[in-house]
Structures are given as C-alpha cells and as structure tokens.
Predict the structure.
Amino acid sequence: MTSEQARQIGRLFDTLAPEYDSVGVEFFGPIASSLVTALAPRAGERWLDMGCGRGAVLLRAAPVLGDRGLAVGTDISAGMLEACHDAVHRAGLTNVALHQDDAQAPSLPAVPGGFHAIASSAVVFFLPDPAAALSAWLPLAAPGGRLGITTFAELDPRWQALDRLFDPYLPVDMLDARTTGAAGPFASDDGVEELVAGAGWAEVRTVSDEVEVRFASPEHWRRFSMSTGQRRMWALVPDDERQSVVDRAFAQLSADSAADGSTTYWQRFRHTLAVRP
Ligand SMILES: C[S@@+](CC[C@H](N)C(=O)[O-])C[C@H]1O[C@@H](n2cnc3c(N)ncnc32)[C@H](O)[C@@H]1O
C-alpha cells in the first residue's frame, strides 16, 4: 500500500509538473542522456523507467528501442504522467506505455521475459525505503537485465551556498542525507553500491558524470528552483522573510555571474549500474 510519505511526494510533483524541466535550464535532460548512454539501449529491448517524470529517460531511450522494443514508464504523480504522455505523443513514439505506480512496491503488469533494463534517474532518494524498493525491482528484470539508478554527488560549493540559505527554515528530516548527500547511503559511490548489492543485484559499479547548469539571470535560478523539489523549501520560508532570502540569493548569483549576467554552476552525479544475477 502506498505510504503517506510517497503520496505527499506525488502531490508535490503534481504541483511541479507544468514547470518541471521546462524553464530553459539544461539539468534533468543531460543527466538522463548520460544514464541512457551508460545503460546502452539496443533495438528490440524492453525498458522500465521508474519515476519517469516528464520522460527525460524514456524520450531518449524509446527511439533506440524501436518498434520491436518497449519503453514502460511509471510514476506516482498523475501530473507528471500527463505531461509525459503529451511529450511522448508529440515525439510520435508508439512503443511507450505509462502507468501510475509506486516505485516503492511496484504493481505494474508483468512483462513476459522481464525487462532488459530498469532505469531510474533522480528518484530513489525520494522513496521511503530505497533498499526494499531495489529488492522489489529485481524480479521485474530479465536474468542478466541491467539496472541504472542516478543519484547526486558533489555540488559546486557556490551553488551549495545558495541552498544553505534555506537551512534555517528546514525541519530535520529535510536535512536528511538522501536529499543533502551529506551522510547516509547517498553520500558516496560506495554507499549507493552497498545499497544496490545488498538488494541482491550483481556486478555493481559506478559511472560518474557532471552537468554544467547555466542560469541566464538570478530570476532564472529562482524559477528553476520553484520547478524542482526545492519548491518545498521555498514554502517553508515565512512570508515576511522570503524577500530577504531572495535578495541574498540574487546578490550571490550576481557575484558569481559572468559578464553577460548569467551564472553557471556544476553538479556531479553518479549512475550506479548493476545486473540481475
Ligand atoms: C526529480 S523527478 C525525476 C523524474 C525523471 N526521472 C527525470 O529524470 O526527469 C522525481 C520523480 O520521481 C517520482 N516519484 C517520487 N516518489 C515516487 C514513488 N514512490 N513512486 C514512483 N515515482 C515516484 C516523482 O513523481 C517525480 O516524477
């Protein structure tokens, strides 16, 4: 049964769906491209994308899988799935199926032979019990099927300083390592590898990559932050303090900016790859 925590995350992403990954900042797209490359799709394969969102992974993998292949996307958020459905339709893809489902305990229809690859980009740290979820995904893969989960690694210290402006307003659980990366399984390559291996996956390894993220202006950063999970943090800042947070953030973005007023920060990320024994 879907937990209240998972339902709350679903509602957050329902709110984010119209703007998510569509405010002109290259972030989730390049990360998904890198995951698809690491998982090396082949024509005719069956893929499952857990927490597909607006389709960052699906839209890149499905054309390679082709007419004989299948790309299944699941997400807990009806809003994200609706946006994904529109994007799939616009791209003219006919080998994609979408289901509303909880990645913590998937109940999607069985696919004969299992999936050749299970991808999940920027999702597992939202799950109430990531280790149990990764175990539950194992039987969905074909024997020898590949897993690729993407989580965040080091962040440009200047971008980190912006995030810290929210710290005084956050409850303790939002400082949790799964989202801050400061401690716990998502703090290191080894931590995520242990999580995946402990769930029964074999040949576990890490591929690291980095994205450069350009904000055309401080306001562009604000819009981006409102289109991601950081929107939760904005909501926790009291009304009478919000302008002060905006002013301090904008001052820092301006101090970090290039001559054209844009600011570019980097974000490292890791794909933890494995195989079903
Ligand atoms: C940061 S977004 C990533 C979306 C997409 N994979 C991408 O790379 O753009 C996280 C996604 O995970 C989904 N999600 C969070 N918890 C989930 C759960 N328990 N089951 C399924 N999806 C979940 C959210 O609805 C959201 O679409």
